[in-house]
Specification:
heterotrimer, A mainly alpha (217), B mainly alpha (562), C mainly alpha (137), A: Four Helix Bundle (Hemerythrin (Met), subunit A), C: 137 residues, 50% helix
């Protein structure tokens, strides 16, 4: 039987309140990522040619792979909510584990195949950026603006990766609670809230992927 | 208007304070620091924001002392910069933004809508801890040398050139921002879903409407400034170049992003105060608020329009002049909903039986000062006059009239109005009125001369003005006034604290006010707010001036002059 | 404020067994799976669309079409995730208001673009653009 906290009248009110609260939080997250995307869009417009050249130093195949992984995880989370509404807890945990593994895989690919090479090449905002960029790609474009591109790239993907990391940790925490503390997780709403968060993380990537990896001239 | 009928499952308490209430439910320190009770968290916030208020006031005292002489008196230039920065940052981010929502809003919203608590009590407690952590970081930044970029942190000074503790301060502000987001999310969920049976949207007190509008601004605006300040911190650490023109970035972009939040933030500070004024005006005029729906929707209009006027802070900072014209037009529009409120409050008093109790004196002070503050805002939203007045003491006087004359007066008025509800005891009405008048007089002496100074061209944030020694008289006048103002602010600390020990027992409804918090809850309320679930069947603000004006007036006069 | 009337009674008086409420809608497995495959298809489509050879440079029409296609697909995908995975399609008006209100409000940042469209972004002295810089001078 779901537990109703003392400030609520009944379980319906409690569940609806939690969903409203979660959406209010997500609105806040939208406004949190919004300025970053806006600033990126502004500079992509103002420095179009440079950003076009520089964006091709990112590998769209890795981006597509990561998109696939996030979409799979998003589906798994949606399935977890589905099973939780049907109260099939074993399947909920399986789906959440799957999503957590996907999230970890996403971070690993990001770190090993994208950030690590960029860092070892010195292609992150640092005083030696100019010479390293010239050494790797030649004077193919305005290097200072190229640096701006990489700044935005690390700022947005970094903040997104932080959200993925938090999401994975929440998955693990939620699975533990479902298994060990049936007195805390008494209905599907916690899974639903975690799911909403994770779908939001997916949404960010849905916009991030074409804007950074597939930029047309 | 028909009379209110408020049914309760259990009969009303006797006028004495209830034996068990939220204050004495538990006595350990732990029960306060780990509480989920919105009323206790409000008290924790009250203590914190009072501390920050006097800390910021101390910085203001140094500024005023420095300006008494054209050559300065005691601070060198760097220290002066740090002093006004500290004053601005503490007052705005750690007092004004948090003061009314986190103290009075936290305490009253569940009581007013008939809920047992806010929707997410643990989130509420977490917001206090995050707020305190942010404040602690900022105080550490102060101790380690302070911040000299002003409260606006304009780039490139804040990002590339300043050698002070800006990064630490930015992290502190980031946390304070998250604290207000947590409160905002909590209020939105609570107001939407936790209203008592029969408490429809148009039976909500206007106080709740204004907090709803505020919470909307908080969740839509605060994250924008949070990420912007984070980018400035990254720019300091890593030179990422987003706001650096030498790397292809644009420093004006920072101003866009900053004011996208910080202009609506003015309304975050002001709207809850307007809600308080609606309550006080109705209660002490014994009339329903005139034009309830207009006042309610003007709160929402202010919240919406407030987001479209940020460019009026940037007329002279190389923003496109075409955009300046549009922002100027929309800025004039914001005056409309604000004026609706002022006119409606004035009409509320008309033909009412006005009782000049302490909260009412504060509310009347608000009305006058906010009107002056708002109207001088129109000078500043016109591009032509703004070019002369921007960056001068005219601006300083304008926003102090809005922030201190508006928000702080409303906060003090609300604190006096609900003090009996919060702690169950009456304060000394005599000293209350004296302090309200002292604050009003001191405030005008402090800030009115600054309008003249600004018109004469004295720039803000400068501490030497030996090029124009004739400004000294106004500065001295202002400093003298600020001393009076400071005394006015200190007085409530003494008589309010004294009332906690020896004030007369207030009873559940000392003002004869309407609203669930007065009519259905005891003073101080019990931990779960109501005995049973209140049910609302009548309209809000059920005062009737004709019915009970004369007898009531006599009775109340006796009560408040006691 | 579209839900004044619909949620006037904050404390619902329906019993616990009432699952007719939209908040409890269980989205069928087939629908979720179908959505997933559509999303994958759109992802492949966006990659293919971006790899098509566009000739004609910055000012040519093809690149504008490419932008439109890419962003259009991104919004389509986002819409699917919000509507189906996040269940907004099946939820209350209030949830819809917040879900779409947030995405609407973030576009207000775009007002700033008007500023950048009507003035030049001037680099400071010491900033020397190389020949290919797209910066208008």
């Amino acid at each position: 039987m779901p537990e109703v906290y003392p400030q609520f009248e009944d379980i319906d009110q409690q569940q609806e309140t939690y969903i409203v609260g979660m959406w209010a939080f997500l609105v806040n997250e939208v406004m949190f990522f919004g300025p970053l995307f806006f600033i990126y869009g502004l500079y992509a417009w103002k420095h179009n040619a440079v950003f076009y050249v520089t964006s091709h130093h990112l590998d769209y195949k890795i981006g597509a792979l990561n998109t696939t992984i996030l979409l799979i995880s998003s589906w798994m989370v949606a399935m977890a909510v589905h099973y939780h509404q049907k109260n099939q807890l074993k399947k909920v945990c399986n789906m959440l584990w799957g999503a957590a593994v996907c999230g970890t895989l996403f971070l690993a690919i990001k770190l090993i195949f994208e950030w690590a090479p960029k860092f070892s090449h010195g292609l992150f905002p640092n005083p030696g950026f100019q010479s390293r960029y010239l050494a790797y790609y030649g004077a193919d474009t305005n290097v200072d603006v190229a640096r701006l591109f990489f700044s935005m790239y690390f700022a947005i993907t970094g903040l997104h990766a932080l959200h993925v990391l938090i999401g994975v940790l929440i998955f693990v925490w939620l699975i533990r609670l479902i298994k060990k503390r049936p007195d805390v997780i008494t209905d599907y709403v916690p899974t639903e809230m975690v799911g909403l968060y994770w779908h939001f993380v997916d949404l960010v990537w849905i916009f991030l992927f074409p804007l950074f990896y597939l930029m047309p001239k | 208007m028909s009379s209110t009928v408020i049914e309760q499952a259990v009969e009303r308490e006797e006028p004495a304070a209830p034996k068990k209430n939220y204050l004495n439910a538990d006595h350990t320190i732990k029960s306060w620091l780990l509480t989920g009770d919105h009323k206790r968290i409000a008290v924790l916030y009250l203590i914190s924001v009072t501390f920050f208020f006097f800390l910021g006031g101390l910085a203001a005292a140094f500024i005023r002392a420095e300006l008494t002489s054209p050559m300065g008196t005691l601070l060198n230039s760097e220290t002066y910069n740090k002093m006004f920065s500290a004053h601005g940052i503490i007052m705005i981010f750690f007092f004004l933004v948090a003061a009314i929502p986190a103290v009075l809003g936290n305490f009253l919203i569940p009581l007013m809508i008939g809920a047992r608590d806010l929707a997410f009590p643990r989130l509420n407690l977490a917001s206090w801890y995050v707020f305190m952590l942010g404040g602690l970081l900022f105080i550490i930044a102060l101790i380690m040398g302070g911040v000299d970029a002003g409260w606006t942190f304009y780039t490139p000074l804040s990002s590339l050139y300043s050698q002070t503790q800006i990064t630490l301060a930015l992290v502190g502000l980031f946390l304070a921002g998250f604290s207000s987001i947590m409160t905002g999310v909590n209020f939105i969920a609570t107001i939407h879903k936790m209203r008592a049976p029969g408490m429809t949207w148009f039976r909500l007190p206007l106080y709740v409407w204004s907090h709803y509008a505020t919470s909307i601004i908080v969740i839509l605006g605060t994250p924008v400034v949070a990420i912007t300040l984070l980018l400035v911190a990254l720019e300091r650490g890593l030179r990422i170049g987003i706001f650096s023109p030498e790397l292809g970035g644009d420093p004006v972009l920072f101003q866009h992003m900053f004011w996208f939040y910080s202009h609506p933030a003015v309304y975050i500070m002001l709207l809850p105060g307007m809600g308080i004024i609606s309550e006080i005006m109705a209660c002490f005029s014994r009339r329903p608020v005139f034009g309830y729906k207009f006042v309610a929707f003007s709160s929402m209009a202010i919240a919406g329009l407030g987001f479209l006027v940020w460019g009026h802070h940037m007329y002279v900072s190389s923003q496109s002049v075409y955009q300046g014209i549009i922002f100027s037009l929309i800025s004039f529009l914001v005056a409309v909903p604000s004026a609706i409120k002022v006119f409606n409050w004035s009409l509320t008093m008309w033909k009412g039986s006005v009782i000049f109790s302490t909260p009412m004196i504060y509310a009347l002070g608000f009305l006058g000062l906010f009107t002056i503050g708002g109207l001088t805002g129109l000078y500043l939203s016109a591009i032509g006059t703004d070019i002369h007045l921007t960056g001068t003491y005219f601006i300083v006087a304008h926003f102090h009239y809005v922030m201190v004359g508006g928000t702080v007066m409303a906060f003090l008025g609300g604190l006096h109005f609900w003090w009996p509800k919060m702690f169950g005891r009456m304060y000394s009405e005599f000293w209350g009125r004296v302090s309200a008048i002292v604050v009003f007089v001191g405030f005008n002496f402090t800030f009115f001369p600054q309008f003249i100074l600004g018109y004469l061209g004295m720039p803000r944030r400068y501490h030497y003005y030996y090029i124009a020694p004739e400004w000294q008289i106004y500065n001295v006048l202002s400093t003298a006034g600020s001393t009076v103002l400071g005394i006015g602010f200190l007085m409530p600390v003494f008589y309010l604290l004294k009332s906690l020990k020896s004030g007369p027992i207030a009873g559940p409804n000392p003002w004869g006010a309407t609203g669930l918090e007065w009519e259905a809850a005891s003073s101080p309320p019990i931990t779960l707010n109501f005995e049973g679930m209140p049910k609302v069947v009548g309209p809000v603000y059920n005062y009737d001036a004709i019915e009970d004006s004369e007898s009531y007036r006599r009775e109340m006069k006796e009560k408040v002059t006691k | 404020m579209s839900e004044h009337t619909s949620t006037t009674n904050g404390h619902g008086d329906h019993g616990h067994g009432d699952h007719g409420h939209s908040g409890h809608h269980v989205i069928p497995q087939a629908k979720l799976l179908q959505t997933f495959f559509v999303l994958m298809g759109l992802m492949i489509a966006t990659v293919v669309a971006a790899r098509l050879p566009y000739e004609g440079g910055v000012k040519g029409i093809p690149s504008a079409i490419a932008w439109l296609v890419l962003l259009g697909i991104a919004f389509w995908k986002a819409g699917l995730v919000v509507q189906i995975f996040m269940g907004v399609k099946y939820s209350t008006k209030l949830t819809k208001l917040y879900a779409y209100g947030g995405f609407f409000w973030v576009t207000l940042l775009g007002v700033t673009l008007f500023d950048y469209a009507t003035r030049q972004l001037e680099p400071v002295q010491g900033w020397e653009p190389v020949a290919e810089s797209a910066l208008p001078r």
